[in-house]
Design a protein that fits this description.
It is a single chain. The chain is of the alpha/beta class. It has one domain: TIM Barrel. The chain has eleven helices and eight strands. Strand 7, helix 9 and strand 8 form a beta-alpha-beta unit. The longest helix has 20 residues.
Length: 307
Amino acid sequence: MEFGKVTAEELEQTDFTLPPDPAVNATVLKPFKGKTKFYIGCAKWGRPDWVGKIYPKGTKPKDFLEHYARIFNCIEFNAVFYRMPFPTDVMKWKEKVPKGFLFCPKFVDTITHRKRLKNVEFETGKFLEAITEFKDNLGPIFLMPHPQMSPKQKDTLFEFIGKFPRDLDMFVEMRHPQWYDGPGGYNMELYDFLKAQKRGTIITDATGRRDCVHMHLSTPECFIRFVGNSLHPTDYTRIDEWVQRIKQWMEQGLKTCYFFMHQHEELHSPELIKYLIVELNKHCGTDIPEPVLLYEQGKKGKGGTLF
């Protein structure tokens, strides 16, 4: 993942401190009976360099998804951003995962980047026709409009979100810097709209775009996209701080936490996910099974199951 990538010198100079919570979070986080649900995963499963790390030695590419879904309970499904899926594609993917596993698909680029949310009724219909075949394996849909879409195009954005089926969950990430202008660090007109529509905000923690770490929650859920730097020491201290913030949100009434791990070299994502799980269990009272790193365990058989 290239978003937010910086030079080694810039990395050493970056202040990774998480911003304080905005006051509006208290309006959506309310104590409830029950426990926070966790969905933790990566952005792709097709990693040959994970064979021998989390996939058993000898695993074939056609079996990667099946093994991935034994280890993680969700995926930030970016593959469909690059090509409109067919219902038959979705049914094949669904067959390979267990009950409770969630695909969180990103809108196809024809909708968000080529046509920029305008006159996309046909494309949106085709997209929904396919992804709804996930059925109970469908998680929230990930909307990232074109990075050039600024608040000047808010009417187009609001119209698209307002017309989207209410029975499907959606989280929204904005890339244009003007959405983060102002003393609060987030466009409050957008925030109020998402809150009213019961659509979630995405918080992306990337080194070169600290404005995207805005910390605003418009629903009692968080959707965190963490972009690490190949297991640099700051990756671990950043995770430490996230664990403490998630703990705070849990105490205030966080219902669901989606946490997706990215690295500029995705090879290293499993190690950092394991560290995240260990720290969550230590500090947040969770009991999430750790993924097994086969090279650490000296095992040649099946990997561990995360959930």
